[in-house]
Specification:
mainly alpha, 66% helix, 3-stranded antiparallel β-sheet, 6% strand, 297 residues, 8 helices, 3 strands
Length: 297
């Protein structure tokens, strides 16, 4: 199983490196430049939506230039036909079965509430989907600091995943305007899910990554159904929002179908990465047990 996801993780490492490269070299990157602050010159990259000068800064040379459009996605795929949409991981232990069962249980509520409203479904669920990567990145970051050890690239990969899911939300907000009820649901579900997930991730990281992997498997299925509705004519294939064209570097005449294909490819990547990390954690635990038993014998 680990071999199955190894190539995906290599790709994810490349994505993480691409993200680190994109941010400092893009012409659209905004710069915070601090001059004459002690003996140091600082440069940092800032992300926001409009230009502003810090009028009340203690240093008059502090100036912030903020960009007008998002950075390109680090997950851009040249040929969507190469994306493995059918990859699934069979549960192999009790915690895997718990993770998969919970995902299937939650899907019942999503299917019942949203039914065929795929755009609204994407808006609400992407607000939740952005939580695991942020929590995982934060916990791994703190663990790396605490243990004075490298993180094996997990922090960058997970934070990149969280940002990618957030951009999905920004895209689908342009396609389906959420109702007041859906906005209230977002606030409630996100708050509840964040607190539960951060607790579980602290003590059961392998199960949490497996849970996200199974969640992304369902996301791939949902976006495939969304495409089927477009292909059947039940949902109009409207022009792609500009934010989607900029983010995925789509053609100027891209349509909704192109956006969904790009989104589905992202979810397939997150599926593979989270399953691999779960397998990696399991393998490390097995290695420690083997080493311990060898010492005892």
């Amino acid at each position: 199983m680990i071999r199955h996801f190894a190539s995906r993780t290599v790709l994810n490492a490349a994505h993480a490196q691409a993200l680190r490269t994109i941010i400092p070299t893009s012409r659209n990157t905004t710069t915070l430049k601090v001059l004459s602050f002690g003996n140091l010159n600082h440069r940092a990259h800032i992300h926001a939506n409009y230009p502003v000068r810090l009028a009340h800064s203690i240093n008059p040379d502090v100036e912030v230039h903020l960009k007008h459009k998002p950075q390109p996605s680090p997950y851009i795929v040249d040929d969507y036909a190469k994306v493995d949409l059918d990859a699934k991981v069979k549960p192999e232990n009790p915690s895997d079965w718990v993770a998969k069962g919970l995902v299937k249980f939650l899907r019942i509520f999503a299917d019942t509430f949203f039914r065929g409203r795929y755009g609204h479904r994407a808006v609400v669920l992407e607000t939740v989907a952005g939580v695991p990567g942020m929590v995982g990145g934060m916990v791994n970051h703190l663990r790396s600091l605490r243990k004075l050890k490298h993180d094996d690239g997990h922090i960058q990969a997970l934070l990149s995943e969280a940002e990618n899911e957030r951009m999905h939300l920004m895209v689908y907000m342009e396609i389906a305007k959420p109702s007041i009820i859906e906005r209230g649901l977002v606030t409630f579900v996100q708050g509840l899910f964040f607190n539960i997930y951060i607790f579980c991730y602290t003590f059961f990281p392998k199960t949490c990554h497996r849970f996200v992997g199974y969640l992304e498997e369902e996301a791939v299925i949902s976006y495939t159904s969304y495409l089927a509705e477009i292909d059947s004519g039940k949902i109009p294939n409207i022009p792609a929002p500009k934010v989607a064209i900029d983010y995925w570097q789509l053609k100027p005449d891209a349509r909704l179908r192109d956006v969904i294909e790009a989104t589905r490819a992202d979810e397939a990547n997150h599926r593979d990465v989270n399953h691999f990390i779960a397998d990696e954690i399991l393998a490390k635990r097995a290695g420690k047990k083997t080493a311990a038993s060898g010492v005892i014998s």
